[in-house]
Amino acid sequence: MNFEVFANKANKFLYEINESIVSNELQLEAHWNIDHICYRVESDQRYLELKNEFSKFSRLLTESIVNNRKISTFKLLTPLNTNQFSVNIIELPAPKKNNKYKEGFEHLEVVCDISFNHLINKYHMYSINKSGLEKSFNQELAVKFKNFAVKFHHTSLESVVNIEINELVFSSIQKLGVLNTLSPFNPLIVGTLPLDIHTPSSDVDIIFSHTDLSQLKEILVKNYSHLDKFSIDFKPDKTPNYILANFQFNNTLFELYGSTTPTLEQRAFKHFNLQERLLKIGCTKFKQQIKTLRKKGFKTEPAFASAMNIKGDPYENLLDLYNSSELSLLSAITKD
Q1: How does pLDDT run across 261-296, given as a tens digit for each residue?
Q2: Which of 7, 24, 74, 139 could link 58 by a cystine bridge, Cβ 3.0 to 4.6 Å?
């Protein structure tokens, strides 16, 4: 399968998606991100064949074992474009044992900024698979529409891969069990590490939320106060209120930020979500600009603002772009 054949198949699949959006069957906000599309195969042999063929027009990000079968993630050298969205990541899973799949595109995954409960209520008339909500890392909710499925989550596959291939960081997260400890509070990993624009001094940023900050303080002190470089900053009366814990574990720095503000409404998530989309749309050249500025000592938001020639407060003015479409973000990146 060469790129032309692949692109024709993909565009046909994306056309079906677009028709569902037009008919209002599938409702996607302009600032959501079609993270990747999944191509299924019928056999392990076909998986190996396509893995080789895909490598001719895309870059293999990772191949991992999930549920006892291999899954390869590719980044296209030439993104696919629809009227509203671009797609540059392809997931190629080997078939599960005793499961038969018809070859072709099966589902897409979307990064959204609303809760899973909201999505369940929104699409209650469709078949919903909640098994992905049991995962501690990168939870997902699957909704089966007429001719395809959509998996909704809150972090892109490329960001997930960036964390998983950083062996020290990922092993530290797993050994510490921090996502399991914070699981009742909707934790998300944000910041520069998943975006692959980190520096040697970067920490693992985890945000979460709860209505009782005093209870969060007890949990953080109980679980992490014995670790190196532990400190805690408790501001229950500040607007927005927060609790911030810092420590080091397994030669990895962690920063845990909790607030009564829901996780998906916190500024840290909105900045991360926007930066994730900007790096996707801006491609390699833009990402290299950001990395160069970070090496010069720029903080994350000032680096993006400088690369995009955004004046004033970078933390506030970047968020003015949050609800923008991909076309608007591309214009903001490429303007003089």
Answers
A1: 999 999 999 999 999 999 999 988 999 999 999 999
A2: 74
DSSP per residue over 180-211, as a string?
HHTGGG--EEESHHHHT---TT--EEEEEE-S
Regarding whether 147 and 258 lie in a shared domain, the answer is no
**Dihedrals phi, psi of 80, to nearest 5 degrees:** -85, 140
Domain boundary among 103, 134, 158: 158
Residues 86 and 109 in one domain: yes
- 3-state DSSP assignment of residue 334: helix
123 and 205 fall within a common domain: no
Query: β-pairing, 86-93 with 69-81?
Result: antiparallel
Cβ pair 146, 101 in contact under 8 A: no
pLDDT 10s digits, 290-333: 999 999 999 999 999 999 999 999 999 999 999 999 999 999 99
Whether the predicted pLDDT of 73 surpasses 80: yes
Integer angstrom CA distances of residue 76 from 132, 169, 254? 26, 26, 32
Instruction: Count up the domains in the chain and report the number.
Output: 3
Judge contact between 61 and 75, C-beta under 8 A: yes
* DSSP per-residue letters across 256-301: EEEESS-GGGSHHHHHHHHHHHHHHHHHHHHHHHHHHHHHTT--HH
Range of lowest pLDDT (134-138, 168-172, 263-267, 313-317): 134-138
Structure tokens at 214: 């005093």
Q: What is the pLDDT of residue 336?
A: 57
